[in-house]
Amino acid sequence: MTAVAAVLAVIGSFVAYAHWPSRGDRDTPRTYHVWHWNIAGSALHHGSVSDGLIEAASLSIRRRGADFVSLNEVCYSQYRALRNSLARASWPQDSGDFSRFAGTRASSPALCGGTGPYGIAVFSKLPLGSSRQYELPPDGSAEQRKMLCAALRATPRMRFCTVHITTRSTLWEGMPVNYRQIRFVRQALDAFDAEGQAYLVAGDFNAQPDYGRVNQLYAPSLTTAANHGNTGAHRELDDSDDAHCPGYGQGTAVGTRAVAKPCGRDPKVDEIFVRESRLAGAYGAVALSIPRTCSGLAYCSDHRALFGTVRMTVH
């Protein structure tokens, strides 16, 4: 059993992707572990850094051996606190340059307990190089949604991205804005690939895998009862779990049971995508149990963290 297969046997079901195209002799297979969580940092925690949220996240990241971390709905104060916690625990190789934050809403008394801005963030066990914030099409709210991407310093053609797509489906220039935001992300990823760059993107897409607006992300090779009609170029790390709705994966959002799901479980709206042509071996993911260690809360979030492993080629 390979090392990556051994890891995936522990964390859940996995698929050995048997037919991946070669991208050239200089492309190197690498294995990455990705940890993503929508922490509801303002809605549930009001910006707190002392109610157990930071400790729960830091412990899970380190125990799982994550290489990349994606956070959605994080207050800047919580971003700084988690950064400090991981640095103290010697999680990153370079404690001075291993994270990025993108604000999507400015500070206000009603947001994050008045502690500062609110947005999305990435962390990397490997030192980071250049990064960029991409503004998504506006949804008419006070929040400017973004995609945040950061390249690895030693491997600049490998980048990790996080994104949080709007829930709004109002029309903007004749098209639902949530569809437009996903299309913007897909076009940006296609541009990365055209430039020979490898990437992983994680986030709360606010769209279940069977929704038509994410067909443009999933590759046609994925065709199941719960996910078909796809036209994109990606596989999602939880899309081939035979034990948890093949093509769909494990649910990540709790408290929304009235929403229709193809397999009758919690909706899955958090995903980790990899370019199908970059696959070089096994991949898989598991939705983690929500910690119950945050003071004053039954659960630390209304989302489960998603942890995935993938073997992919990087130039």
The helix tally amounts to 4
Category from helices, strands and their pairing: alpha+beta
- Unreliable spans are 1-23
Mean pLDDT: 92
The fraction of residues in strands falls at: 25-35%
Question: How many strands appear in the DSSP assignment?
Answer: 15
What summary fits the major beta sheet? 7 strands, mixed
Q: Round the Cα radius of gyration to an integer and report it.
A: 18 Å
Lateral arrangement of strands in the main beta sheet: 1-14-15-2-3-5-4
Helix content: 10-25%
**Overall 3D geometry?**
globular
What is the terminal separation in angstroms?
26 Å
Q: What string, H for helix and E for strand, traces the elements in order? A: HEEHEHEEEEEEEHEEEEE
Describe the protein's architecture and organization:
The protein is α+β, with helices and mostly antiparallel strands. Helices cover 17% and strands 30% of the residues. The chain is built from four helices and 15 strands. The strands form three sheets. Strands 1-14-15-2-3-5-4 form a seven-stranded mixed beta sheet. Helix 2 (53-64) links the parallel strand 2 (28-38) and strand 3.
